[in-house]
């Protein structure tokens, strides 16, 4: 892929802590279009044609389509390529501006669901978790899973129910990829529903928290996330400088986990300028080191019952293994059965019948090395370990309009509460490998 070096064309606009996020950065994308180019099973022929223009590619699974961001000066050449496509964003700058409806609508009351009507400034996210803790003082604590390269806390919350803490862990990570903002909202919504539901006597929230300790870290890549709000909306990696004088920044924290880090050359990039740059060594990002430390602590404590790394987009529920598409774990049968039940619950709960595809990661999508679910299963010994790719399937991609936050997070609550109720069921005994 010929990547468009977006950093070279973006003006850096400094935004103060209390300013409106992203508003200042909409203009660099003014006039950019996002296309879903159909490949219909022949991606290499289409990629050959696309090599005539520069673009940024959003997806890796190119068998049916390639989603690309095209700058205004490339549009005439793109039009001449004779490709079949749909328009995802007519004007990406306008879509980003529409996305940054400000959080002042939120009344700074944690019990108020209007938080989920807009995207928010990084500092407000920290405050939001503090206010959820304040609603649940005897059953929660604010925790940190380490620090980022720029020294931001990987803050989170630990929740427990009757007789806790100390039960097997449910661990959620959000926003490892900085631009996947809907994953922040989703991990926050699940926290909000657990806390307010437990307080109100909700049966699902009570039974989950009485059985498991929840560890929820909504922004595991805070430097990248802050960067998407101040400078470049579509940034993915962390903000660590490149090695050996490389001018490119950032490592993909989700290609940096120790387990099988180097197992498959197709699973990550060794190029510091790539979106999937895996680092120089396993776990050579401060973020990964902190996350891994908590994983090992939980393993050595009451153990990890369920791990989910929340991403967007594409609507998938993916289990290990990612690093090798022909390798099936002995637990794959139960993981797939559980994923199917979650997928059904999501579909049944959503007014537009949202469907999620499920299966082992490498075989279902594409190979990934050094990715979280493989590590948290193999090293962290999690009984269930997934990546969930949230909405959508390509209408808006990473720039999901604020009015779609609520339906997206609500359907995940429907999926998770069913999943929690099944984790300890004998139901899974005897379900063999798929
Ligand atoms: Zn992601």
From TrEMBL:
<dbReference type="Pfam" id="PF00246">
    <property type="entry name" value="Peptidase_M14"/>
</dbReference>
<keyword id="KW-0482">Metalloprotease</keyword>
<feature type="domain" description="Peptidase M14">
    <location>
        <begin position="118"/>
        <end position="423"/>
    </location>
</feature>
<protein>
    <recommendedName>
        <fullName>Peptidase M14 domain-containing protein</fullName>
    </recommendedName>
</protein>
<feature type="signal peptide">
    <location>
        <begin position="1"/>
        <end position="19"/>
    </location>
</feature>
<dbReference type="GO" id="GO:0006508">
    <property type="term" value="P:proteolysis"/>
</dbReference>
<dbReference type="InterPro" id="IPR000834">
    <property type="entry name" value="Peptidase_M14"/>
</dbReference>
<dbReference type="InterPro" id="IPR057246">
    <property type="entry name" value="CARBOXYPEPT_ZN_1"/>
</dbReference>
<dbReference type="GO" id="GO:0008270">
    <property type="term" value="F:zinc ion binding"/>
</dbReference>
<dbReference type="InterPro" id="IPR003146">
    <property type="entry name" value="M14A_act_pep"/>
</dbReference>
<keyword id="KW-1015">Disulfide bond</keyword>
<keyword id="KW-0479">Metal-binding</keyword>
<comment type="similarity">
    <text>Belongs to the peptidase M14 family.</text>
</comment>
<dbReference type="Pfam" id="PF02244">
    <property type="entry name" value="Propep_M14"/>
</dbReference>
<dbReference type="InterPro" id="IPR036990">
    <property type="entry name" value="M14A-like_propep"/>
</dbReference>
<keyword id="KW-0732">Signal</keyword>
<keyword id="KW-0865">Zymogen</keyword>
<feature type="active site" description="Proton donor/acceptor">
    <location>
        <position position="389"/>
    </location>
</feature>
<keyword id="KW-0645">Protease</keyword>
<comment type="function">
    <text>Extracellular metalloprotease that contributes to pathogenicity.</text>
</comment>
<keyword id="KW-0121">Carboxypeptidase</keyword>
<keyword id="KW-0378">Hydrolase</keyword>
<dbReference type="GO" id="GO:0005576">
    <property type="term" value="C:extracellular region"/>
</dbReference>
<keyword id="KW-0964">Secreted</keyword>
<keyword id="KW-0862">Zinc</keyword>
<dbReference type="GO" id="GO:0004181">
    <property type="term" value="F:metallocarboxypeptidase activity"/>
</dbReference>
<keyword id="KW-0843">Virulence</keyword>
């Amino acid at each position: 892929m010929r990547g468009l070096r977006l950093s070279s064309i973006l003006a850096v606009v400094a935004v103060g802590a209390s300013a409106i996020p992203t508003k200042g950065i909409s203009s660099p994308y003014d006039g950019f279009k996002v296309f879903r180019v159909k490949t219909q099973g022949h991606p290499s022929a289409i990629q050959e044609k696309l090599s005539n223009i520069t673009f940024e590619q959003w997806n890796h699974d190119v068998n049916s389509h390639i989603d690309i961001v095209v700058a205004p000066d490339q549009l005439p050449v793109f039009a001449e390529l004779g490709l079949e496509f749909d328009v995802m964003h007519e004007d990406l700058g306008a879509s980003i501006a529409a996305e940054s409806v400000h959080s002042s609508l939120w009344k700074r009351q944690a019990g108020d669901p209007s938080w989920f009507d807009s995207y928010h400034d990084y500092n407000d996210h920290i405050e939001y978790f503090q206010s959820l803790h304040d609603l649940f003082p005897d059953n929660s604590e604010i925790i940190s899973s380490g620090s980022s390269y720029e020294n931001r806390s990987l803050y989170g919350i630990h929740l427990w129910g009757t007789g806790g803490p100390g039960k097997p862990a449910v661990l959620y990570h959000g926003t490892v990829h900085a631009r996947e903002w809907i994953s922040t909202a989703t991990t926050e919504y699940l926290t909000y529903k657990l806390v307010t539901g437990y307080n109100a006597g909700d049966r699902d929230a009570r039974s989950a928290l009485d059985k498991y300790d929840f560890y929820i870290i909504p922004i595991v890549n805070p430097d990248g996330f802050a960067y998407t709000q101040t400078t470049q909306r579509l940034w993915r990696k962390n903000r660590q400088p490149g090695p050996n004088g490389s001018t490119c920044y950032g490592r993909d924290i989700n290609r940096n986990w120790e387990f099988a880090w180097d197992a498959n050359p197709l699973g990550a990039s060794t190029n510091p300028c790539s979106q999937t740059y895996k680092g120089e060594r396993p776990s050579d990002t401060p973020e990964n080191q902190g996350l891994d430390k908590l994983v090992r602590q939980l393993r050595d404590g009451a153990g990890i019952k369920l791990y989910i790394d929340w991403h967007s987009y594409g609507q998938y529920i993916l289990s290990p293994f990612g690093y090798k598409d022909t390798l099936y774990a002995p637990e794959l049968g139960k993981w797939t059965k559980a994923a199917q039940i979650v997928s059904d619950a999501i579909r049944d709960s959503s007014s537009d019948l949202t469907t999620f595809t499920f299966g082992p990661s490498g075989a279902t999508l594409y190979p990934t090395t050094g990715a979280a679910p493989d590590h948290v299963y193999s090293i962290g010994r999690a009984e269930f370990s997934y990546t969930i790719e949230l909405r959508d399937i390509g209408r808006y991609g990473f720039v999901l309009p604020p009015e779609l936050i609520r339906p997206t997070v609500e359907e995940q609550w429907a999926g998770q509460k069913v999943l929690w109720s099944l984790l300890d069921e004998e139901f899974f005994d005897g379900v063999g490998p798929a």
